[in-house]
Design a protein that fits this description.
It is a single chain. By secondary structure, the protein is α/β, with parallel strands linked by helices. The protein has a single domain, classed as Alpha-Beta Barrel (TIM Barrel), CATH 3.20.20. The protein is built from 14 helices and 8 strands. The chain has helices at about 20-30, 55-70, 90-105, 125-140, 160-165, 170-175, 200-210, 255-275, 280-290, 295-300, 305-310, 315-325, 330-340, 350-355; strands spanning about 5-10, 35-40, 75-80, 110-115, 145-150, 185, 215, 250. The protein is globular, with a radius of gyration of 20 Å.
């Protein structure tokens, strides 16, 4: 059984360039990735300042990217996070939201996702209010497909600690009151799940009354702790049997766009090969395809340092040696490693709290 794969650009931290997005899109489209959701937390005009229009140059670039997606046969979507709108969905909020939806219609957004993740609620009937907002959005948008990220998008208790205790039967109420064609994102038993099993996904689908769309927080490496590490290894803990219980599988990529293509290719292979998938073998194959033989082999040699040890455990001598090694390569992936070694991808707690 196959499943629709996609990219959900939903991380905190420094933004990608449009050239980086275009290159990643073209690479992954060749491997069967069928949708792209533009939703970086650092785009203020989709989150904290969502009521304001994008600057003209950024709006034009977004429209150009939508055209590229269409050319590549990839469904283009935008993830809009109208920040804490569920706490006061009044006439003023509706007016601002209508203006934003009209602007997104002009781009030709095919999928519109309303993202309620990482926000604090002051609303007693949270699920019902969010379902009401989605119905209103559907009535005022020309998009062909609609998705939602719940405030509680995982069973992980960290969400309750940070954003307040979830209402009882939140997921069941949301699933019952949403239109049946609205897709619902889910990250698994954890925000960054080590493993995602068919049994868990079936259980979530039963609670929602629909198959969830998996928002997979690998290889994403945002946050103070994770940005210290490069996430390069092939996908594990996502058996191909999950396909029977999900409506799609989107990956939240790493801060490093070129390096992100390596694990992304292994996910496509894991579904294609099913029980014959070998993550180590697939990693070597994907790395050599995406990076070239020499750079791939060098990264695989340094994998324990780059992914497991991380910046905090690399001494100055080792760091200098790695800079010399990767400085000898003329490749965007090597440039990403150099930038990472020099702290250019560090994501602070303040960035997460304010983006």
């Amino acid at each position: 059984m196959t499943v629709e794969l996609g990219v959900i650009e939903g991380f905190y931290g420094p933004m990608w360039s449009w050239a980086e997005r275009r290159k990643l899109l073209k690479t992954l489209a060749k491997h069967g990735y069928g949708f792209y959701l533009y939703a970086p937390k650092a785009d203020p005009y989709l989150r904290r300042r969502w009521q304001e229009p994008h600057p003209a140059a950024e709006f034009a670039a977004l429209a150009d990217f939508a055209e590229l997606c269409e050319h590549e046969g990839v469904r283009f979507g935008v993830g809009l996070s109208p920040f804490e709108i569920f706490n006061r969905f009044d006439e003023s909020a509706r007016h601002a939201l209508a203006a934003k939806l009209k602007a997104l219609d002009r781009i030709g957004v095919q999928e519109l996702a309303i993202l309620f993740d990482d926000m604090r609620s002051e609303t007693p009937s949270l699920a019902s209010t969010q379902a009401e907002i989605m119905r209103w959005v559907k009535a005022h948008s020309a998009a062909a497909m609609f998705s939602i990220c719940p405030t509680y998008y995982s069973d992980d208790p960290v969400l309750d600690r940070v954003f307040g205790e979830r209402p009882s039967d939140y997921l069941e109420t949301l699933g019952a009151e949403l239109d049946k064609d609205v897709r619902v994102f889910w990250t698994g038993e954890e925000v960054c799940s080590r493993e995602i099993s068919p049994g868990h996904l079936k259980h979530v689908g039963d609670r929602l009354g629909r198959k969830p769309v998996l928002w997979d927080n690998y290889p994403v490496n945002d946050g103070d702790r994770m940005s210290q590490h490069l996430h390069l290894r092939g996908f594990t803990g996502r058996p191909a049997a999950n396909a029977a219980h999900i409506a799609g599988h989107g990956i939240n990529p790493a801060l490093q766009p070129t390096l992100s293509t390596v694990p992304a290719i292994t996910l496509a292979e894991s579904y294609r090969l099913g029980p014959d998938y070998q993550y180590g073998h697939s990693l070597r194959h994907a790395a050599r395809e995406a990076l070239g033989l020499d750079l791939a082999d060098q990264i695989l040699t340094d994998l324990l340092v780059l992914q497991d040890a991380g910046l905090g455990r690399i001494g100055e001598e080792k760091r200098a040696n790695l800079e010399n090694v990767y400085g000898a390569f003329s490749h965007p992936a090597a440039e990403e490693i150099l930038r990472w070694l020099r702290g250019g991808y560090q994501v602070t707690d303040e960035m997460v709290a304010t983006q």
